[in-house]
Structure formats: C-alpha cells, structure tokens
Amino acid sequence: MLTDIHEGKTLPPVVKHVTQEKINLYAEASGDYNPIHVDESFAVKTPFGGTIAHGMLNLAYVSEMMTAAFGRNWLSGGRLRAKFKEVARPGDTLTINSTVNSIEKRDGVSYANCSFEVRNQKGEVVVAGEATAKFSRGQE
Amino acid sequence: MQGNTVNYEELVPGYEFPLASYELSASLVSKYVQAVDGAGDGFVPPLAITACAIATMAGSISLPPGTVAIHASQDLEFFKPVPIGTTVECHIRVVQKIARGKMGMLILELGIFDQGKEKVQSGKATIALPA
Fold this sequence. Notes:
The complex is a heterodimer of chains A (about 140) and B (about 130). Chain A is built from 5 helices and 5 strands. With about 140 residues, chain A is of the alpha+beta class. Chain A has a domain at about 15-20 and about 55-140: Hotdog Thioesterase (Thiol Ester Dehydrase, Chain A), CATH 3.10.129. A 5-stranded antiparallel beta sheet of chain A has the order 1-3-4-5-2, covered by helices on one side. Chain A is elongated and about 55 Å long. Chain A starts with 13 loop residues before the first strand and ends in a 5-residue tail after the last strand. Chain B has about 130 residues and is of the alpha+beta class. In chain B, about 20% of the residues lie in helices and about 40% in strands. In chain B, a hairpin with a 5-residue loop joins strand 6 and strand 7. Classes of the chains: A alpha+beta (about 140), B alpha+beta (about 130). Chains A and B meet through helix 1, helix 4, helix 5 and strand 2 of A and helix 1, helix 2 and strand 4 of B. Strand 2 (about 80-85) of chain A pairs antiparallel with strand 4 of chain B, so a sheet runs across the interface.
C-alpha cells in the first residue's frame, strides 16, 4: 500500500499489453462473449474493423492500481466513475496514470479523490474518470 | 421477448432484468486474474463481480444481427470485500432510456448482494445500442 498520501501525489502507473488471448480469457471469466470482442470475422465487418477489448477489462486495470495503492480500503468504500472514450485493440499498450486531486475528511475518515486516465500507445485517452478511496493514518 | 432475451422496445424505465446469481469460484477468479494480469489477494477483485453482472445483462438483450452494444460509462461503489467462493445475486433495472437517432442509450442501475443479502456493490452503467 502507498504511504505519504497527499494532494498532488501520483500513484504508481500500471502498464498493460492487450492481447486477443487475454480478451478471450476475460470473456471466459466474465461470460461476456459479445462477438465484437472474440469473433474477428464478425468484428471486421463492424465500424471498429476488428476485435476490441471489453471496456470493463480496461477499467479493471484502474481497479488494480487502486487496490495496490489503498488495499482493502478500496474494496470496502471505494468509488469509481469512468467514461469509456476510445476502444483498446489487441496489440495496444495501455498506461494507467492517476493523481490525488484532493483529500477530504468526513466523520474522522480521510478520503483521497483521484483522477485517472488510461491511454494507449498513441496517447489517446481510452478511459478517464475519478476514483475515491478512504485511507488510514499510516498512509498519511 | 424470445426465450431468455429481451428486445430493445421492451427495455423501458422500470424494467427489471431477471435476477441472476453466480458463484465467484476460485477457478473463475483465477481466470479473471490471469486475464487482467492482476494479483490475487484472497478476495474477489471488485470489477470481476461487476463484469459478471454486466455480461449477464448484456447477454440477455436481443440485438439486430451484425450490430453491437457498447459500454459508454460506469459508476461503481464497493461496500465490502467479497471472499472467493461467495455467491452473489445481481439486480439490474432500467432507469432511463434516451433515443439518439439510430442509437439508444440505456442507463441501468445495478445492485449486487451476497448470500447474507448484504449489498456488496452498487452502480450505474450507460450502454449505447442500436435503437
């Protein structure tokens, strides 16, 4: 877990490579077999021109970053607001960055309000949003 | 409605998708963790739970051939860590439907409960799909 959480703090970035194999595995785990994700012959005829990763797969990387930073406080009390802006495709490399924008105290509990972005290797924003997690004294 | 699917026209505000329950088994979580390149910590990754709920809902919508539904936005709140092996029940209902030309936007509210009927997650999803 992170220590020294303060306004302006940058969370350790996460870098992920999107592959069709991982997309297929994600489809199996989630049960989401939408052909746009797993059927190249279908996907190539759509405006996307090929398969794309599940939006929730891209968002999972944000959750992973928040779990690494805030531990169980993310699993219990975490909040997330995300907009899917661009698709991720097999072969893409995604970099997830987040910064603590503000700290607020409610009922004696500290909360870190973070903004995040998931960008592809071209610098395009794939997912953007805000995440909030409480944190404990040891992390201040 | 055909079989277990629902047509776009039937998806009106107040419509509730059939309740879905699923076990967050060790094998499911292991597969999920591999797919997202994550690290297991004894609890179910919260987005694994959401993903199953969204997939169940999306799989029950009947779309015209050759078209796709796209996840536009997602809000979530997590209430408690969920141990591996928990069975959860997922409630999803349509709260808003917006028509935009040939596309429609569905705003869905979801609530996920454990076997003790405690809420483990709530959220809102916006899905774009052909009208």
